[in-house]
């Protein structure tokens, strides 16, 4: 950002650098989703491979499942974070930045609650990690999802703080929607964050079906 606000570069160069930074945020956010897709795909492939082979009938003990109520609680928290992120962005684009901040802090609290449930569920599972294929997959998914919840909560929290910083440093009426470099970079970050939250919500629904419905 120091180069963007420097006085020795021309307006054209400044505009080029701004677009490059916005493009980097856009590409980085989508690349991050791609990386997560590969990680999720590896879990899904392993799950269905072990389930289909069922070597020595050790895939799953009949009636064995992780705590259902807590699993749904984690899923609901994940969906709420994605909903609040999208709602906040819509309100931001409509000019209601304070609604975005409120939605962001609420989503941060919900994300932390989901993180607590995901950690706590590991103390409540009725099986040992290596008891069978299902138990091993569930423990592996739980550890992976702990990292996911940390990332999604951290991202929306930092984006919310950034919104407050933009308002404080730029001032004026609706500075978040202005053409200032800081505001444009902020909006690009919000867009990437919302797409990621929506992607995680879809993935959470898939994992809910895998571990609790099938």
What does this structure look like?
By secondary structure, this protein is mainly α. It has a single domain, classed as Four Helix Bundle (Hemerythrin (Met), subunit A) (Up-down Bundle), CATH 1.20.120. Helices cover 77% and strands 0% of the residues. It contains five helices and no strands. The chain is elongated.
Mean pLDDT: 91
CATH structural architecture: Up-down Bundle
Major β-sheet annotation: none
**Strand percent estimate:** under 5%
DSSP helix fraction: over 70%
* CATH homologous superfamily placement: Cytochrome c oxidase, subunit III, four-helix bundle
Number of strands: 0
Rg computed from alpha carbons, rounded to a whole number of angstroms: 21 Å
Report how far apart the termini are: 50 Å
Helix/strand class: mainly alpha
Secondary-structure element order, N to C = HHHHH
Number of H/I helices: 5
CATH class: Mainly Alpha
């Amino acid at each position: 950002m120091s180069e963007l606000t420097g006085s020795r570069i021309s307006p054209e160069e400044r505009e080029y650098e701004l677009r490059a930074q916005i493009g980097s945020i856009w590409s980085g956010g989508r690349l991050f989703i791609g990386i997560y897709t590969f990680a999720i795909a590896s879990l899904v492939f392993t799950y269905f491979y072990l389930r289909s082979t069922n070597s020595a009938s050790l895939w799953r003990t009949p009636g064995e499942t992780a705590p259902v109520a807590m699993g749904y609680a984690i899923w609901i928290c994940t969906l709420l974070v994605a909903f609040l992120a999208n709602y906040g962005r819509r309100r931001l684009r409509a000019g209601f930045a304070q609604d975005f901040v409120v939605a962001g802090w609420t989503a941060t609290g919900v994300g932390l609650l989901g993180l607590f449930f995901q950690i706590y569920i590991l103390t409540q599972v009725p099986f040992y990690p290596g008891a069978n294929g299902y138990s091993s997959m569930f423990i592996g998914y739980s550890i992976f999802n702990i990292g996911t919840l940390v990332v999604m909560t951290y991202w929306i929290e930092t984006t919310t703080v950034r919104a407050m910083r933009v308002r404080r440093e730029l001032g004026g009426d609706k500075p978040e929607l202005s053409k200032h470099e800081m505001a444009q970079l902020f909006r690009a970050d919000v867009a990437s964050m919302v797409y990621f939250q929506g992607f995680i919500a879809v993935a959470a629904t898939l994992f809910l079906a895998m571990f609790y419905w099938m």
